[in-house]
Structures are given as structure tokens and as C-alpha cells.
Amino acid sequence: MKKTIIECQNVSFTYEHSTVLEHTSLEVKEGEFWALIGPNGSGKSTLLKIILGLLKPDTGTVKLFGQNIESFKQRERIGFVSQKSNAFNLGFPATVLEVVKSGLTRKVGLFKPFSKQDEETAMNALRIVKMEQFARKNIGELSGGQQQRVFIARALVGKPDLLIMDEPTVGIDQQNVTSFYTMLKGLNREHGIAILLVTHEIDLVTDLASHVACLNRTIHFHGVQSEYKKMDDADISSWYGHPVRRIHHSSTEVEE
Ligand SMILES: Nc1ncnc2c1ncn2[C@@H]1O[C@H](COP(=O)(O)OP(=O)(O)OP(=O)(O)O)[C@@H](O)[C@H]1O
Q1: Which of 38, 141, 234, 253 could join 215 via S-S bond, C-beta 3.0 to 4.6 A?
Q2: How far apart are CA 109 and CA 84, in angstroms?
Q3: In whole angstroms, what is the distance from residue 197 CA to residue 224 CA?
Q4: Segment-wise mean pLDDT, segments of 10 residues, the chain, 256 residues
Q5: Residue 36 Cα, ligand 1 centroid: separation in angstroms?
Q6: Which domains does the chain have, with CATH numbers?
Q7: How many angstroms does the Cα of residue 107 sit away from the middle of ligand 1?
Q8: How far apart are CA 9 and CA 197, in angstroms?
Q9: Euclidean distance between the first and final Cα of the chain, in Å?
Q10: CA–CA gap between residue 20 and residue 14 (Å, rounded)
Q11: Are the C-beta atoms of residues 157 and 104 closer than 8 Å to each other?
Q12: Which of 36, 46, 52, 83 to mutate to test ligand 1, by most ligand atoms within 8 A of the CB atom?
């Protein structure tokens, strides 16, 4: 049986005076690919911050890999990739390989030299995202889509079981967005890495995710992709609070 790796139960959260999450429950099992969708300001990033331990819920419980978040110590099991615009200063004088190796700092120790083995681990992570040929380039010379692949490699270098991403394709052009998602699907399928992805690209992502959660202050839908696909646009519009028209692709998956 698949193990549960994220379990949020009845989570509520208030910023000063505004309640952003109420009775929010989410369950992600190993190997699953979840799209977390919802309108602007619906609490998606807040929920991710709670799962990452950056915010503490007012009520409710969060368990990671079966352990209460307060006592959870195996941070290396979770890789996180934020929006590109927040991710890195492009003027930063670092090569792609150095950026990826920086993902090993927790394991190696701050100010400790990287070994040959660490370098090989970083090159392997770059191979997974098909960026090994850019290893010696400066990070600032790459396109937005290529940079995001490098940040995924940095998140992968510690061999996580779960990758959490907050709108990783913001600022990436449409053509590269499709190949970026195709690469994510491969990561999930071939390497068994579970994914929890916040996105506004609902048509594209709900086509390739295995599960969908729709959040607007609380969870309105939580289930497998095929059930989500059967929902009426009217239901989704009522959860969003404004009209939503989904594009129904003939194929259920992005081409690979
Ligand atoms: N640090 C903060 N202090 C006060 N309010 C905040 C803070 N961060 C977020 N909020 C508010 O909480 C609500 C939920 O924000 P959150 O970023 O979680 O939503 P989101 O679903 O990720 O939005 P978007 O899709 O626009 O990125 C918003 O109304 C936002 O203005």
C-alpha cells in the first residue's frame, strides 16, 4: 500500500485579522503528482508554507512522512522550487553546476569543500533535467525555462522523495512551459518522485497530474484527475467565485 507523505487535517490559518485557510485537509501519497489549483489569494502559497514548516497553523495537524511536522527532521526528503522571479539574483556570478551543488550544502556543511562525488551527484541531477551540457555556463546566461530546470536539479540533488513547487513556470514562455511540464511528468513517472505543484495553468497541469486539489479558503475538490475532469465548469466556477471555462484536450496527457 502507498504511504501517505503529506497529511494536513483541518488546518486553519489567519494572517493578523484575515482568515486565509479554514478546515483545510490534504493527503498526498508517495508517487502521486498533485496539482493544487484555485483563484488568486485563495491560500495556496500559505498552505505550501505551512507544509514546508515556514508558517504554523492556528489549528489542525500536519504530518510529513508520517511524522508530526514539529518533530520532522528529514528535510532533505523534500525539494522546494519557488517562482523563478523569487528564486535567484541573475547577476549572481555562479555557474549552473555551482548552483546545483549549493543544494548539497545542508548535507556537506556550510563552507566545506565539495567532493568529486558531490560533483558527480550534481551532474546526475543536471542529466535528469537534461541540462548537463550547460553545467559550466553562468546561470544568468540561460533562458527562464532553462533556469527553472537548473533549480529543479538543485532541488533534486539531495534525492528528495517529494518535490513542492509554487508556480514554477511564471515568466516562462508558452513553448518552454509545455516541455517543462513534460520533464516534470518524467521525473514523477521514471524516478517515482511525488510532486505537489501550485499552478494557474489549470488546463495544462490537470492534464498530466494524477490528482487535483482545488483550494479557495478550504478544499472544494480533492481527488483523482479523472474525477476532476468529470466536474462541470459550473462547479469549478462556483469554487473559484468567477466563471472558469476549461479547455478539454482530446489527449489526456501532454505530448512527450
Ligand atoms: N504575509 C502576509 N501577511 C498578510 N496577508 C497575507 C500575507 N501573505 C499572504 N497574505 C494574504 O493571504 C491571502 C492568501 O494568500 P496566498 O499567497 O496564500 O494565496 P495564493 O492562492 O497563493 O494566491 P496567488 O494565486 O495570487 O499567488 C491573500 O489575501 C494574501 O493577500
Answers
A1: 38
A2: 26
A3: 15
A4: 95 95 97 94 95 95 96 90 63 85 74 81 90 92 85 89 90 78 88 92 83 94 91 86 73 42
A5: 15
A6: 4-86+162-240 (3.40.50.300)
A7: 32
A8: 19
A9: 29
A10: 6
A11: yes
A12: 46
E-assigned strands of 110-224? 162-166, 194-198, 211-216, 218-224
Of all protein residues, whose CA lies closest to atom 11 belonging to ligand 1?
A: 41
pLDDT of residue 61: 96
Mutation pick for ligand 1 pocket among 18, 50, 52, 205 (CB with most ligand atoms within 8 Å): 18
Classify 24 as helix, strand or coil. Answer: strand
What is the C-alpha separation between 186 and 183, in angstroms, rounded? 5
Measure the CA–CA gap between 167 and 196, rounded to whole angstroms.
11
* Cα-to-chain-centroid distance, residue 227: 22
Pairing, β 67-68 against β 78-81: unpaired
**Residue 114 CA to its chain's centroid (Å):** 27
Quote the CA–CA distance of 52 and 69 in Å, as a whole number: 9
Contact between residue 196 and residue 164 where contact means Cβ atoms under 8 Å apart: yes
Residue matched to cell numbers 548537463? 132
